[in-house]
From TrEMBL:
Enzyme class: oxidoreductase
Family from the record: Belongs to the aldehyde dehydrogenase family.
UniProt-recorded Gene Ontology molecular function terms: methylmalonate-semialdehyde dehydrogenase (acylating, NAD) activity
Name this polypeptide is given: methylmalonate-semialdehyde dehydrogenase (CoA acylating)
Assigned keywords, A-Z: NAD, Oxidoreductase
Domain Aldehyde dehydrogenase: 24-486
Domain of life: Bacteria
PROSITE patterns the UniProt entry points to: ALDEHYDE_DEHYDR_CYS
Enzyme Commission designation: 1.2.1.27
CDD domains: ALDH_F6_MMSDH
Xref: InterPro entries: Ald_DH/histidinol_DH, Ald_DH_C, Ald_DH_CS_CYS, Ald_DH_N, Aldehyde_DH_dom, MeMal-semiAld_DH
Short name of any one Pfam family annotated for the protein: Aldedh
GO terms, biological process: L-valine catabolic process; thymine catabolic process
């Protein structure tokens, strides 16, 4: 992207990627991409027209005819090249991400790196897309399976991980032989487009990866288009439920990773310093704008006495622009996000929670217009309070007290969400009890954000997920492929015919 422009100069436009070309949209509807720390307009993103969406899908459908026949080794080598290009451009990618999303530069690099891990995994597609064979299942009969690509697939990604989540999606879809339509968040598409450029440089053929931008109309067009066979979505519960229902009714495969309310149990035997550090990093990192953020800590027994330590340690965290060295908490992504988080803090007070630490309106030198909220802690939080029932998506930590581990587990299991949870303890018995009895898809034991490496798959559950299969890992290979089962018998000239057989047997 070009450098940010002043208000007197028209900002550069974000392009569409259609059939291997960066295309200027003909739309009349645009949105500004804004630096959340300064309110500077970085670029303008188009809301693609119906004709542009249709063109992207048509080119993807055409490209699929040859891409599905591309040897597995050739597909894998593209992703070997892409991971190299991402590593070489890591600093640039992080800088773009920080400018448009607000994360600190180290956290932005982490965002890119976690996506890079999936790109590396996609390069192993030869081992992941294997079928099965049973020899001589009946007289001279073999049965085997082929895991074949579906066709045109699509991904809809959120603002909070504009590098990682696109990299969760298109590499695995393309590596398995599909072509792809990516719709990144309209709030921060710049780093996503840079990744798309690197994918083209790595050798992704024209039409195999296409990128379109837009809002609700484009999302609905993806859900409705008859040539799109599968959709992967990460974002809010409201939008994810809409996507799942609408796309499923149109006969598509759909996986939706949605909202969360992640709890961490802190046992009194936990290593205090390590647990507090991990808890606050998971609660306030990325300004709380993670679907796997720990937003509720359940303090068991004597751990309830650690609240002053939590508050004191939180006060040492530095709130600043994401490019400033030593920053712990950057800005929220938008003015609307800032207003929403501040409103929920007000409602927390009105509902009767105790505000142990108020992070509203921090003074951030040089960033008077930034969307900043500092670390905020409530105690005495109970079900029914807005700050507990809603996903705040800001740097707000709710504290709940429990008498013992049974009460803590019961409390967490009563929450409808099931993205992630964690326990901090030095007791193997407590950890085992927790992992067996907790009804949440991803469990951390002394690990606050238990997002698995790509050898496994993201396995959020209950209200946090719609669809049977998760993104990346072994599950997503199943999601992006259709199993075809072949039963074969070959006869030689010496085979004796026994006449017509009208039974179902293969004997």
């Amino acid at each position: 992207m070009n450098a940010p422009t002043s208000a007197k100069v028209l900002a550069p436009t974000v392009k569409l990627l259609i059939n291997g070309q960066m295309v200027e949209s003909k739309t009349t509807q645009w949105r500004d991409v804004v630096n959340p720390a300064t309110q500077e307009v970085l670029a303008r993103v188009p809301f693609a027209t119906p004709d542009e969406v249709n063109a992207a899908v048509a080119n993807a459908k055409q490209a699929f005819k040859t891409w599905k026949k591309t040897p597995i080794g050739a597909r894998a080598r593209i992703f070997l090249k892409l991971q190299q290009l991402i590593r070489e451009n890591m600093k640039e990618l992080a800088a773009l991400l920080t400018a448009e999303q607000g994360k600190t530069l180290p956290d932005a690099e982490g965002d890119v790196f976690r996506g890079l891990e999936v790109v590396e995994h996609a390069a192993s597609i030869g081992n992941l897309q294997l079928g099965e064979l049973a020899n001589n299942v009946a007289n001279g009969v073999d049965t085997y399976t082929l895991n074949q690509p579906l066709g045109v697939c699509a991904g809809i990604t959120p603002f909070n991980f504009p590098a990682m989540i696109p990299l969760w999606m298109f590499p695995m879809a393309i590596a398995t032989g599909n072509t792809f339509i990516l719709k990144p968040s309209e709030q921060d598409p710049i780093v996503t487009m840079r990744l798309a450029e690197l994918a083209l440089e790595a050798g992704v053929p024209p039409g195999v990866l296409n990128v379109i931008h837009g809002g609700e109309d484009v999302v609905n067009a993806i859900c409705d288009h008859p040539d799109i066979k599968a959709i992967s979505f990460v974002g809010s519960t409201k939008v994810g439920t809409h996507v799942y229902n609408r796309a499923s009714l149109n006969g598509k495969r759909v996986q939706c990773m949605m909202g969360a309310k992640n709890h961490a149990i802190v046992m009194p035997d936990a290593n205090k310093e390590q647990s507090l550090n991990a808890l606050l990093g998971a609660a306030f990192g990325a300004a709380g704008q993670r679907c796997m953020a720990v937003s509720v800590a359940v303090l068991v027994g004597e751990a309830r006495n650690w609240i002053p330590d939590l508050v004191a340690k939180s006060k040492t965290l530095k709130v600043n622009g994401g490019t400033e060295p030593g920053t712990d908490v950057g800005p929220l992504v938008s003015c609307a996000a800032l207003s929403r988080v501040e409103g929920l803090i007000e409602r927390g007070l009105a509902d009767g929670a105790t505000l142990e630490l108020d992070g509203r309106k921090p003074e951030v030198a040089g960033y008077a217009k930034g969307n900043f909220v500092g670390p905020t802690i409530f105690s005495g939080v109970k079900p029914g309070m807005s700050i507990y029932e809603q996903e705040v998506f800001g740097p707000v930590l709710c504290l709940v007290a429990a008498e013992d581990i049974d009460q803590a587990i019961e409390f967490i299991n009563a929450n409808p969400n099931g993205n992630g949870t964690a326990i901090f303890t030095q007791s193997g018995a407590a950890a085992r009890k927790f992992q067996e009895e907790i009804d949440v898809g991803q469990v951390g034991i002394n690990v606050p954000i238990p997002v698995p490496v790509p050898l496994f798959s993201f396995t959020g559950s209950r209200a946090s997920k719609l669809g049977d299969l998760g993104p990346y890992g072994k599950q997503v290979v199943m999601f992006y492929t259709q199993t075809k089962t072949i039963t074969a018998r070959w006869f030689d000239d010496s085979t004796t015919s026994h006449g017509v057989n009208t039974t179902i047997s293969l004997k």
